[in-house]
Amino acid sequence: MKLTVWTYEGPPHVGAIRVATGMEGLHYVLHAPQGDTYADLLFTMIERRGQRPPVSYTTFQARDLGSDTAELFKIACRDAYQRFQPEAIIVGASCTAELIQDDPGGLAETMGLPIPVIPLELPSYQRKENFGCDETFLQIVRTLAVPCERTPEVSCNILGPTGLGFRHRDDVEELSRLLEELGVAVNVVAPMGSRPSDIARLGEAHFNVLLYPETAEGAARWLERRHGQPFTKTAPIGVGATRDFLAEVTELAGLASVSTDESRLRLPWWSSSVDSTYLTGKRVFIFGDATHAMAAARVARDEMGFEVVGLGCYNREFARPLRRLAEEYGVEALITDDYLEVEKTIEALAPEMILGTQMERHIGKRLGIPCAVISAPVHVQDFPARFSPQVGWEGANVLFDTWVHPLVMGLEEHLLHMFREDPEFHDAAGPSHHAGHGPVKLRLVGEDEPVAPTPVNDGAVVWLADAEKELRKVPFFVRGKARRNTEKFAAEQGLGEISVDTLYEAKAHYAR
């Protein structure tokens, strides 16, 4: 097994916990050793939920391995039913407990509990978190959904939102509003916000809205086969995709035309304004889960006027559609769950902006490239208390703010550095609008640290302090390229040191 500091996805049982946490009246009994109970922290600390996940652990220890760990599981299962009185129970094993092969599903079935018990087979060493979500929800739907008569009015189910999902709560609210404007009723939202009894009546809807394929495509396809419910194929992220989605819903619902209120949109007027020209053509690298990455590529190119120079995802189950899209955009798809490979690619491409996950945010910080988070995995700041969806008209406004602000603030930071030696604006100058006050010391990020020569190319070439200082005046979005060109020029000239003169000679050389 590959050990790493960061990981894009957890093991599949974490995906199962996300489904259980999103639902009500469902309990998850997890056969797990002491130490595999860390998932509580994900929901109480990162998602900031008011209650802990509905999960009971067997929490066996090393000394228990010599006795009957299967009996420990039965006790945990019985206690969970008596204490929480759920409508249904799902049972499974963590990655460590899977090795002892106790078969939680078979054990639970022999107990004769008076509620549905749904066994989960989640291969921890072959699959990951999103698979765990998708497979868990599929098994719940297969067990609980029953044939139903359709509702008198046109209705749909919204499938996919889970606990610990990136903006799932707000996406459901915005999407429900859009569907209501079309005259389409929402029958059930699942897994998030539903109960096992709600899953039983999924068949009442005329069609399904598949909001996140990573977490619910298996269930959507099963409902299409068994209950004759078609499902949407477009994720409504961005203005163009939302319009396409609404047209798709209109067709599935048999409505005459699309009629929704676009007055809340702020992106289109900006895209046609003079201000937008400052950011037109910015080179962006996009990485995340496939749904958000592919949607972001369309928004970046067609709605923001950016140039997509890299596109990738970490969930290999969606490699084929992402590769097709990357080919359409004229870039090479990056399919990997190794953040070091992602960092290496970003460094080589030297984009002016990154659209990625929490991991790419850290990578961008290290490389001095602005980053906007568009996909899980995310951290606490990406679970805002305010309404902040990614889908629909308001979602397009959020994308506009989230993507444009890092570029604008990055430009401001560059201007502050550019003019810090100016007689009027340097640090020792007093406030220009307060006469009689002494100088005020303004400390810029990284300014107090001494500028030491930076060895590069295995010590063959070093940057002198004055040259390093001068390099900082180059705009952040081309600084990496300027550094590499200068180092290449110095190596070709056989120079062991890079001075200010070398920096400008390299600039003149590559400007020819």
Descriptive overview:
The protein is built from 18 helices and 15 strands. The protein is α/β, with parallel strands linked by helices and 512 residues long. It folds into four domains: 12-133, 3-Layer(aba) Sandwich (Rossmann fold); 155-253, Nitrogenase molybdenum iron protein domain (Rossmann fold, 3-Layer(aba) Sandwich), CATH 3.40.50.1980; 267-415, Nitrogenase molybdenum iron protein domain (Rossmann fold), CATH 3.40.50.1980; 454-511, Proto-chlorophyllide reductase 57 kD subunit B (Helicase, Ruva Protein, domain 3, Orthogonal Bundle), CATH 1.10.8.550. Strands 10-9-8-11-12 form a five-stranded parallel beta sheet, with helices on both faces. Strands 2-1-3-4 form a four-stranded parallel beta sheet, sandwiched between helices. Strands 6-5-7 form a three-stranded parallel beta sheet, sandwiched between helices. Helix 1 crosses helix 5 (129-144), helix 5 (129-144) packs parallel to helix 8 and helix 16 (465-471) crosses helix 18 (500-511). The longest helix is centred in the C-terminal third of the chain and has 27 residues, at 392-418.
